[in-house]
Automatic annotation (TrEMBL):
The encoding gene: pth
Recorded catalytic activity of this chain's protein: an N-acyl-L-alpha-aminoacyl-tRNA + H2O = an N-acyl-L-amino acid + a tRNA + H(+)
Active site: H26 (proton acceptor)
Family annotation (Gene3D superfamilies): Peptidyl-tRNA hydrolase
SUPFAM superfamilies the UniProt entry points to: Peptidyl-tRNA hydrolase-like
Site positions for Discriminates between blocked and unblocked aminoacyl-tRNA: N16
Organism: Pseudofrankia inefficax (strain DSM 45817 / CECT 9037 / DDB 130130 / EuI1c) (Frankia inefficax)
Annotated positions for site Stabilizes the basic form of H active site to accept a proton: D98
Name of this protein: Peptidyl-tRNA hydrolase
GO function term, MF aspect, one: peptidyl-tRNA hydrolase activity
Length: 195
């Protein structure tokens, strides 16, 4: 049952390290993990798993927030190392990532499924040896015209999007906490009803 402290949770935000990527669409996961850390007065510190991590309590249970320090397409090894170090069941791993196939502003939650061309998810699935982990999918929408999706995700959010971004990051952080506190189905019922 969600909310019971029968093991730690691992919440991983995906992104690329370095200031040149800080405000890009691909770094939505980093933004959400940073906000969760700020909400709970936690400080992400360098961990030997090639990630920045912080231990805290989310919804009253043990949790680890993390951001891999590797590039997106090799996120898997740090996630697997953190999962092993903190003894987290793969079913209690939550990955927060950008999602092209969801409209900008929408947050969707699911367990398992394919990687849908997302190199970070592909790497994590390969390294964990399972796709049965939770995902908080942060909608960034499709690229305009014929723009290559790889270019689109590495661009900064557009000016109108940046105005909404703090509210959307807040919503995604709320979704992570709801997953831990309530479980997948109640959290989906709540957040999928929102635009």
């Amino acid at each position: 049952m969600a909310g019971e402290d029968d093991g730690a949770w691992l919440v991983v935000g995906l992104g690329n390290p370095g200031p040149e990527y800080a405000s890009t669409r691909h770094n939505a996961g980093f933004l959400v993990v940073d906000l969760l850390a700020e909400r709970h007065g936690a400080r992400l510190r360098s961990h030997k798993a090639r990630a920045d991590a912080a231990q805290l309590r989310l919804a009253g249970v043990s949790a680890v927030l993390a951001r891999p320090r590797t590039y997106m397409n090799v996120s898997g090894p740090p996630v697997a190392a953190l999962r092993s170090f903190f003894k987290v069941d793969p079913a209690r791993v939550i990955v927060v990532h950008d999602e092209l196939d969801i409209p900008f502003g929408a947050v969707r939650l699911k367990r398992g499924g394919g990687d849908n061309g997302h190199n970070g998810l592909r790497s994590i699935t390969s390294s964990l040896g399972t796709r049965d982990y939770l995902r908080v999918r942060f909608g960034i929408g499709r690229p305009p015209g014929r723009m290559d999706p790889a270019d689109f995700v590495l661009r900064d959010f557009a000016v109108p999007e940046r105005k909404e971004l703090p509210f959307l990051v807040d919503r995604a952080a709320d979704a992570v906490e709801a997953l831990v506190a309530e479980g997948l189905e109640p959290a989906q019922n709540r957040f999928h009803a929102l635009a």
